[in-house]
Known about the structure:
Number of helices: 2
Largest sheet: none
Amino acid sequence: MGPTMIKGFAIAALALLGASQVDQYLTHGRYTDATMMMVRQMRHSFGI
Length: 48
C-alpha cells in the first residue's frame, strides 16, 4: 500500500466524518442513523 493509497483513504475518511457531522447538525443524525442500520443489516445478511 503506497503513500497515494493511504492519502486517498485519509481523504475519504475525513469526507465521511465531515458529512456525518453536517448530518448531525442539520438533521439530528437521521441519515447517519439510517446508514448505520443499513450497514448492520448488510453485515447480518453476509454473516459477518
